[in-house]
Amino acid sequence: MKETCGWGTGDPQMTAYHDEEWGVPVHDDRLHFEFIVLEGVQAGLSWRTVLHRRDAYRQAYDNFDPAKVAKYTEADTERIMAHPGIIRNRRKIESAVQNARAFLMVQKEFGLFDEYIWGFVGGKPKLNSFTSFKEMPAETEESRAMSKDLKKRGFNFVGPTICYAYMQAAGLVNDHLTKCYRWKEVQG
User: Fold this and answer.
1) Each residue of 59-75: pLDDT tens digit?
2) Is 47 a catalytic residue?
3) What is the reported pTM?
4) What CATH number labels 12-185?
5) Is 185 a catalytic residue?
6) Phi, psi of 106, deg, nearest 5
7) What is the rounded distance in angstroms from the CA atom of residue 133 to the CA atom of residue 172?
């Protein structure tokens, strides 16, 4: 049996997320937007809670198409608030719409959101060598800079801790523990 980070065991969705997605470098703008929204949704909750509702969020937010979400109206907010599969938090729903609009502005300026966001780590994943989760920071200099710049551009629910969780999810940092078989795999 392969050794893992340990946090995904016992829950098939968490295991699949750990084994297939977490820490894998993302270069797809739609997926960047999905992770930004979901990490914002996670604020105050567990990732497991959000992950188990991911398909419902994809349904509610037009598969996280930022161009579609940016056009949402108050009626769309009400529609999403009534969706039984998501966490119904008006501020987080309104944040997703605002973030979609800001996301499109970044795309307009940089061509791709991917070009912009990878600039915070010099264009390549930052490789950490943690042996325990106790060593892992909640935020870093890069996540603080990202948070500050995203907020300046009109994003919200993007504090430094949320940005660091996003960086981990989108593979801007490799925070798999060194004992985990994925630590080496996501580097290649």
Assistant:
1) 999 999 999 999 999 99
2) yes
3) 0.96
4) 1.10.340.30
5) no
6) -65, -45
7) 18
